[in-house]
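ugh ok fine here u go
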Amino acid sequence: PMQGTDVKGPTAVLKSVSRCCLDMYGAPLLNMKLHPSIFKDENGVQAFMGLLKTWYDLGIYHIQFNVVSPEILRDAQKNPEKYRGLMVRVSGYCAYFVNLPKNIQDDIISRTTHVIIS
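structure:
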């Protein structure tokens, strides 16, 4: 799915990606932004494990996660000195968020932040 169209949850994203003819593209990347609240309790961790099992069962080659809230990213834009160590996945690589150009920061912030219902 295109960025911004992934509105039916993370499992729907995985199902959409699995329907693409991925053999033609080698190893396409899937970036998924998850809200940190997912990991606040055991139910959330188990739900995340279920998401990973679905990813594996669907045969999707590669997925990478950013586990950070949009609020933290916006605060990092305003107060970069507080977030020097904040690393994010961009597209196949990691970078310190505060060192990225503003347009790339805005792009990362605009990605849909998924929650997993446990």
